[in-house]
Design a protein that fits this description.
By secondary structure, the protein is mostly helical. It contains 3 helices and no strands. Helix 1 runs parallel beside helix 3 (81-113). The protein is elongated. The termini are far apart.
């Protein structure tokens, strides 16, 4: 029996974790989250008050989609359609919310001056 320098038994060695097939960890969840953020981002683009918040949310959604895609590729699998859908929806939401935010900021001086 192997003991450490103080005489206590060493813990048993655990084998290295390896990929056993199936979907990579959290990749599907990241794809779903990305798609949901993209859908809500597009819907929220029509509410001017939420534009800035959803610009940030759509950036997070794009990061989730890219992370999910890379996890699928590292596992040697083809990314599922939800990854692509999440990416596209978040880019569209980012553009819509960005335009709404910039338009709101452009109109702000006029509102302050009372025009």
């Amino acid at each position: 029996m192997n003991n450490d320098q103080y005489g206590y038994p060493l813990p048993p060695e655990t084998p290295e974790p390896h990929y056993t097939g199936g979907e990579p960890a959290n990749a599907r969840g990241f794809a779903i989250a990305s798609m949901v953020i993209g859908i809500t981002g597009i819907c929220a683009s029509f509410i001017v008050v939420l534009d800035f918040m959803f610009v940030i949310a759509c950036i997070v959604g794009i990061v989730l989609a890219v992370t999910s895609k890379k996890r699928y590729q590292m596992a040697g699998m083809q990314p599922i359609g939800m990854v692509t859908a999440g990416m596209v929806l978040n880019i569209i939401g980012l553009v819509f919310n960005g335009i709404g935010f910039l338009a709101c900021m452009a109109c702000m001086p006029l509102m302050i001056m009372g025009m």
